[in-house]
Write a structure and sequence with these properties.
- The chain has 354 residues and is α+β, with helices and mostly antiparallel strands.
- It has one domain: Chorismate synthase AroC (Chorismate synthase, AroC fold, 4-Layer Sandwich), CATH 3.60.150.10.
- 25% of the residues lie in helices and 21% in strands.
- The strands form five sheets. Strands 1-2-3-7-4 form a five-stranded antiparallel β-sheet, with helices on one face.
- Strand 1 and strand 2 form a beta hairpin.
- The two termini are 36 Å apart.
């Protein structure tokens, strides 16, 4: 199956299915001599793993990463870094009811039509569990980019929206609540709402905002490999993502050019940052910020109509362990994908600035 590799020089290939033996990846292109903080890598997985609070899926997986290659005495060797995460809490029986039918808005039908076979156990390869491998690689990328700060947080759940500008937020509060919203009052409302939705057997979507600071000038490649284009691709590759906007985004259409233009300061910085830290597809040294929209999780614990593999109409009901709202657990995934993009572009930048 094509499409399992991301990146140009800092390159990640992932493998595994939701209820298979293990998931994992191979990270190639990481420079040698990088001393890795293994605890920090595991901590990133802890942020993504299931069962961490009452508002996420209750699947219990320790998500412990095992490194197989590319690291010697705590440092990268420059060779491919292989790693695996064992699936220890498999319950394939939760999915036997969809063995011969297709869940609405899932990848079931298209996988079956494209490949002629599908792993129905939790969606197999199409499951969001694959993103755990991205988090491992992203954690390594973060350490390679130690001078760059990447902070993502939940800014909206349903109609509940964080009204504060990111510059007025204390990012140290992101991990202070299960929603991962850095405003305690808004986070409390979001948490209550997610619990209500879950009790009704339903799901809700949301938005994750990501802010990247201390980015050097010059990351990004013309013409088709613009930095924001690659960030958009990275985010849209995450399960359940339906939209991406950076800088002023869609709100920018309400402004006139004279208002929207970022005027320069003598040092090359800009008075405003509607460009979102990227101009001409290249980072300009200002903060990069963007929003990622996640749809409501497709599996609802309610009866629904669908079709079976023979095209017959059937009625079934969602079962298993699922997130009522995916955004709290997706925060480290967004950060990981942003880190992978920046690490890749940092290496690309080196090739023309020796």
């Amino acid at each position: 199956m094509a499409g399992n590799t991301f990146g140009n020089l800092f390159k990640l290939s992932t493998f595994g299915e939701s209820h298979g033996v293990a998931i994992g990846g191979v990270l190639d292109g990481c420079p040698p001599g990088l001393e890795l903080d293994m605890e920090a890598i595991q901590n990133e997985l802890e942020r993504r793993k299931p069962g961490q609070s009452a508002i996420v899926t209750q699947r219990k997986e320790p998500d412990t990463v095992e490194f197989l290659s590319g690291i010697f005495e705590g440092k990268t060797t420059g060779t491919p870094i292989g790693f695996a995460i064992r699936n220890t809490n498999q319950k394939p029986g939760d999915y036997t009811h969809i063995k011969d039918s297709y869940r609405p808005s899932h990848a079931d039908y298209v996988y079956d039509q494209k490949y002629g076979v599908r792993d129905y156990r939790g969606g197999g390869r199409s499951s969001a569990r694959e993103t755990a491998s991205r988090v491992v690689a992203g954690a390594i990328a973060k350490q390679f980019l130690s001078h760059i700060k990447i902070n993502a947080f939940v800014s909206q759940v349903g109609d509940l929206k964080l009204s504060k500008d990111y510059k007025d937020l204390d990012f140290s509060l992101i991990e202070s609540n299960p929603v991962r919203c850095p405003d305690p009052e808004t986070a409390s409302k979001m948490e209550s709402y997610i619990k209500e939705v879950r009790k009704a057997g339903d799901t809700i979507g949301g938005i994750i905002t990501c802010v990247i600071q201390n980015v050097p000038i010059g990351l990004g490649e013309p013409v088709f490999n613009k930095l924001h284009a690659e960030l958009g691709k990275a985010m849209l590759s995450i399960n359940a993502v339906k939209g991406f906007e950076y800088g002023s985004g869609f709100e920018g259409i309400k402004m006139k050019g004279s208002e929207h233009n970022d005027q320069y300061n003598p040092d090359g910085s800009t008075k405003t940052n509607y460009s979102g830290g990227i101009q001409g597809g290249i980072s300009n040294g200002m903060d990069i910020y963007f929003n990622v929209a996640f749809k409501p999780v497709a599996t609802v614990i309610q009866p629904y109509d669908t079709i079976d593999k023979d095209g017959n109409k059937v009625t079934t009901k969602g079962k298993g362990r699922h997130d009522p709202c995916v955004v709290p657990r997706a925060v480290p995934i967004v950060e990981a994908m942003a880190a992978l993009v920046l690490a890749d572009y940092a290496l690309l930048h080196r090739t023309i600035n020796l």
